[in-house]
Amino acid sequence: MSPAAPRAFPWAEAMAFGLGHLRLSSDDFWRLTPRELAAAIGAVAGPVPARLDRAGLAALMARFPD
Prior knowledge:
The protein is mostly helical. The chain has one domain. The protein has helices spanning 11-21, 26-31, 34-45, 54-63. The radius of gyration is 17 Å and the shape is elongated.
């Protein structure tokens, strides 16, 4: 099984959040670093949960075998 292709960065959503929700000027938005944007999104929406990997799936299946 080949790994999934990486998704493109969601520019439309990032711009909508920064310009619309945070009401940043376009200059302020484009001066943000990716980490600063991620921190702002996390402060509003909460952290993104980690993806479930094989080890996590195995642990979950062992915990709930039905």
